[in-house]
Amino acid sequence: MADAERRVDPIQGEILHVYDGIEEADNQLPLWWLWTFYLAIAFAVLYWIGYHELKVAPLPMEAYSKALQERASGGEVSEELLTALVADPDVVGEGQTLFNDNCVVCHEARGQGNIGPNLTDEYWIHGGGPLDIHRTISEGVLDSGMPAWGGTLGADAVQKLAAFVLSIRDTNVEGKEPQGEVWTGGSGGSDAEGRDDAPEEALEAEDAPEDVQDATGTGD
Ligand code: HEC
User: Nearest-CA neighbor of 87 among 192, 189, 193?
Assistant: First the structure.
């Protein structure tokens, strides 16, 4: 305030205000700096109008969950496609790697079952056909502790996993006791009768896996 204190600093220029030894000048900000500031303000306004009012594009979180969904459903899956994949050792090998990384905690190293059912016997809770297995892996059985993998791993990985599971189907590794019903839709996939949807009644098998419920009952 006191004009008497006005002085000029060699670097800062004219000092307008001094308080407690802190000197305050009033210089022009560099133009490039001001422009980043103005552009940031303009961006914020345009973003607000565009995303929140006009909704020209989905918000990042919406876009993300949509992408997850698309990834999960990704493309046509047919019995023929899955059967062809089982015949490709590279695909089955990649499926096995994915299985080791994601599934053995519940289904054991050879698929013989632990928390999850034995995948190598002829009994299936949700159907043992290629499309049944694919659907169970992709959508999961959330009520009984089988996670849905379509969104997390993607359609491609689910196909490889289905191919791997089909390759160990009916190999009868000794493990968890049978759960579900004997699957008679054909073995090996090549001569499978076209059965693209397991009837819901199949889920109500008499020997419903209560031990599975127990084993997974602690989680949510
Ligand atoms: C957290 C434990 C857990 C993990 C991890 C898990 N599963 Fe499961 N899975 C289960 C349970 C529990 C069931 C039985 C669901 C039911 O009883 O309805 C099941 C069922 C299945 C079935 C159907 C079996 C049938 O009899 O119809 C398939 C196929 C399967 N899982 C494959 C996989 C694959 C492939 C992975 C890895 C990507 C995987 N699971 C990871 C717990 C798990």
Answer: 189
Question: Do residues 82 and 159 touch, judged by C-beta distance below 8 A?
Answer: yes
Atom from ligand 1 closest to the CA of residue 203: 18
Q: How far is the CA of 175 from the centre of ligand 1 (A)?
A: 15
- Note the pTM of the prediction, 2 decimals: 0.63
Confirm if 16 and 4 have CB atoms less than 8 A apart: no
Long-range CB contacts (< 8 A, 24+ apart) of 15-22?
none
The response to whether residue 118 sits with its C-beta less than 6 Å from ligand 1 reads no
Q: Which run of H or E residues covers position 24?
A: strand 22-25
Residue with CA closest to ligand 1 atom 43:
146
pLDDT tens, position by position, 21-61 = 898 998 889 999 999 999 999 999 999 999 999 998 888 88
**CATH code of the domain occupying 76-216:** 1.10.760.10
Domain ranges of the chain: 1-57, 76-216
pLDDT at 125 over 70: yes
For residue 152, report the distance from its CA to the centre of ligand 1, in Å.
15
Our answer on whether the CB atom of 157 is closer than 6 Å to any ligand 1 atom is: no
* φ, ψ (nearest 5 deg) of residue 181: -120, 155
Confidence of residue 5 (pLDDT cuts 50, 70, 90): low
Q: How far is the CA of 76 from the centre of ligand 1 (A)?
A: 22
Please give the torsion angle defined by the CA atoms of residues 190, 187, 102 and 135, in that order, rounded to the nearest 10 degrees.
70
> What separation in Å is there between the alpha carbon of 89 and the centre of ligand 1?
23
